[in-house]
Amino acid sequence: MADSAQAQKLVYLVTGGCGFLGEHVVRMLLQREPRLGELRVFDRHLGPWLEELKTGPVRVTAIQGDVTQAHEVAAAVAGAHVVIHTAGLVDVFGRASPETIHEVNVQGTRNVIEACVQTGTRFLVYTSSMEVVGPNTKGHPFYRGNEDTPYEAVHRHPYPCSKALAEWLVLEANGRKVRGGLPLVTCALRPTGIYGEGHQIMRDFYRQGLRLGGWLFRAIPASVEHGRVYVGNVAWMHVLAARELEQRAALMGGQVYFCYDGSPYKSYEDFNMEFLGPCGLRLVGARPLLPYWLLVFLAALNALLQWLLRPLVLYAPLLNPYTLAVANTTFTVSTDKAQRHFGYEPMFSWEDSRTRTILWVQAATGSAQ
Ligand SMILES: NC(=O)C1=CN([C@@H]2O[C@H](COP(=O)(O)OP(=O)(O)OC[C@H]3O[C@@H](n4cnc5c(N)ncnc54)[C@H](O)[C@@H]3O)[C@@H](O)[C@H]2O)C=CC1
Ligand SMILES: C[C@@H](CO)CCC[C@@H](C)[C@H]1CC[C@H]2[C@@H]3[C@H](O)CC4=CC(=O)CC[C@]4(C)[C@H]3CC[C@]12C
User: Fold this and answer.
1) Helices (H), 173-257
2) Dihedral in degrees, nearest 10, Cα atoms 15, 18, 22, 28
3) Cystine design at 266: which of 37, 271, 277, 367 (Cβ 3.0–4.6 Å)?
4) Quick check: helix, strand or coil at residue 14?
5) Is 166 contained in some domain?
């Protein structure tokens, strides 16, 4: 990465490289990082699609491993120039215990940082989340905010708690001396709700709509705006941030960046209809069909059922008090910090992002019309 080593081939490690975002980061690196010599893909569950990547010019090494196991992480990090740490347990539905979420998201991140320090890896990009800021438990709106907008971040749910703590660890590690004596350079990217090819919740909504005869019922007022960003642009932002970290270490080190693009500001449901509409679903109601108090009651009932049934079966519906609060609180970002700090411009326009996502929903659900 130094001038004298322009031609040097770099080793990248992507943790969680087989997840929704991770797969896009992996593919983006292979397409858009000319200095890539080896790409290590570390995940608890390796995807079969990795095999097809192994025939290309870049060496792709699949590593089945667990970020909670420090020795597995250290072995994967050793010799890597850059780590993109996207592995995480994304659970706001009560599928995993709070302890497991903490173990994967916080201890896993700690293990990645320590592995960088011990093995001499200097550049670390962490996938954080808008959830480290909010929405908070008081339902305060965050309207077109940026990285410096004051906001009362109050976390109770295990997922945002874990992401906030992990992000803090990553930022605090910036400047630590790694093996060899040079400083570690870290930054954190905070996506809002990611959508695009591979988005499981979108598929769940589609299936739910099919079960209801092609109808979805409005639950959230159209006026509540929810930040969304296309997965390809989030991946591109990771690749660019990782590439620029050395040259712009003083500016980027220890910084956070919201992930943004040209996706429109809409309610969570109206935004989903941009894709589900062309797949044949209809959203019923200009206004929520149920009063909010009833939704609160149903969400609480779901939480109670989850608790009662836990010894017998995992009951984890989309609606619970936390998801209702997130969906029902305006949270949108408007910033150009990533552009100013490392030259980020979205690679995919809103029209491209929309088309790609529609094609994926149609292919994934066999709904092409
Ligand atoms: N999906 C979203 O809307 C958003 C996601 N994020 C963050 O982006 C990152 C990726 O999220 P998604 O791709 O949506 O989730 P995902 O669940 O599709 O991907 C996460 C990947 O991490 C892997 N993983 C989980 N536990 C692991 C462990 N112990 N060891 C090794 N690998 C493990 C999983 O196997 C999976 O492949 C996460 O850190 C998440 O917090 C941030 C903002 C929004
Ligand atoms: C009340 C329901 C009526 O249709 C709608 C419920 C929708 C929820 C399942 C989603 C609404 C907002 C989503 C979250 C948001 O996009 C922020 C996130 C960031 C992350 O880092 C992980 C995912 C998520 C928590 C995301 C999860 C799904 C929602 C709660």
Assistant:
1) 200-211, 231-244, 249-252
2) 110
3) 271
4) strand
5) yes
The neighbouring-strand residues paired with 255 are 187
Q: Would you say residue 277 lies in a domain?
A: no
> Tens digits of per-residue pLDDT, 308-343?
999 999 999 999 999 999 999 999 999 999 999 999
Centroid of ligand 1 to alpha carbon of 256 (angstroms):
18
Q: Which of 20, 41, 25 is CA-nearest to residue 196?
A: 20
Nearest Cα residue to atom 30 of ligand 1: 66
Domain, as residue range, for 192: 10-201+227-267+331-350
C-alpha 332, offset from chain centre: 16
Q: How far apart are CA 263 and CA 242, in angstroms?
A: 23
The pLDDT of residue 138 = 84
Among 266, 323, 328, 333, which residue has the most ligand 2 atoms within 8 Å of its CB, making it the best to mutate?
323
213 found inside a domain? no
Residue 56's domain is classified under what CATH number?
A: 3.40.50.720
Is 159 known to be catalytic?
Answer: yes
Cα angle 54-59-60, degrees, rounded to a multiple of 5: 55
Is 180 within a domain? yes
Separation of CA 82 from chain center = 19
